[in-house]
Design goal:
Elements (H helix, E strand, L loop, with lengths): L1 H21 L3 E2 H8 L3 H13 L3 E4 L4 E4 L1 H7 L2 H6 L3 H13 L2 E8 L2 E8 L14 E3 L4 H7 L4 H14 L7 H14 L2 E4 L6 E7 L9 E8 H6 L1 H26 L1
Antiparallel strand pairs: 1-3, 2-3, 4-5, 4-9, 5-6, 7-8, 8-9
């Protein structure tokens, strides 16, 4: 029974995330085909979401669409994390200036998780969904997140990763070199580390009002990132500097 409840909860969020990707009304068949749900349980779950007020059902078009209740649920999160939502505006400007996908990530156990994402208008060779997770010790944004930790914390995480991942052990010296590089330069560059042909240029952010650590990254095909690497690093540094100044100004007002 508990396992069924967990499955239903997971599927409910998967449906909402599907709407976030598609951003248009979806018919029952669209949802079932995309997510691979059985017709009976998928239909029942959609009816439940309608009854709870999270989805609206258009009987004429036989399609579903999220209600404003969904938007209201998370509207407070940017302010809670960063005070006045300044980061979202910075992400939008960064996407406009670089022409690439912009990602906000935070630590989720042994992973870097993409918690907010602005897709590039340029075609990508791969899909980058919001909520995706990348190895904390083997991804550009993961290195950025680790750079804010003490060496002792990083070593504890490295040992856990080696014990739990089932992959080739990660050498202490190799990880330390990556982290030192981020700390020295203020940014990380990863190429082909998770997806062949894809890369990320990222930087750690100052701690938000919530105390959580985040990293901001520009992602895209490696060839495109290499062609405008200097400009992306410049724009990324400016975005981090603006956010740092916003945090300082806010602290001054609160003092």
């Amino acid at each position: 029974m508990e396992r069924d409840a967990v499955k239903s909860a997971r599927r409910a969020f998967e449906i909402l995330e599907l709407f976030d990707r598609k951003r248009r009304p979806l018919a029952l068949k669209d949802i079932l085909d995309d997510l691979g749900y059985p017709p009976s349980s998928g239909s029942a779950l959609l009816k439940s979401l309608v009854a709870l007020g999270y989805l609206d059902y258009d009987r004429d078009r036989r399609s579903y669409f999220p209600t404003m209740r969904i938007a209201a649920l998370g509207a407070w999160v940017p302010d809670a994390l960063f005070g006045d939502g300044a980061l979202i505006g910075l992400m939008e400007r960064l996407r406009a200036s670089t022409g690439e996908t912009v990602i906000l990530a935070t630590q989720s156990d042994l992973h870097a998780q993409y918690v907010h994402l602005l897709q590039s208008a340029e075609p990508l060779q791969f899909s980058v969904p919001s909520g995706a997770r990348r190895p904390l010790a083997n991804s550009g944004l993961g290195w950025c997140l680790l750079s804010s930790k003490s060496d002792a914390e990083i070593e504890r995480l490295r040992r856990r990763i080696n014990a739990e991942s089932g992959q080739e052990p990660l050498a202490r010296e190799a990880l330390a070199a990556r982290i030192d590089e981020v700390r020295t330069r203020g940014y990380a560059i990863s190429k082909h580390t998770v997806s062949q042909g894809a890369g990320v240029i990222g930087a750690p952010l100052p701690r938000g009002a919530s105390g959580r650590v985040f990293a901001l990254g520009v992602a895209g095909p490696v060839a495109r990132l290499e062609a405008k690497q200097d400009a992306i690093i410049k724009d990324l540094r400016e975005a981090v500097a603006r956010l740092s100044q916003t945090s300082i100004d806010r602290e001054g007002l609160d003092a």
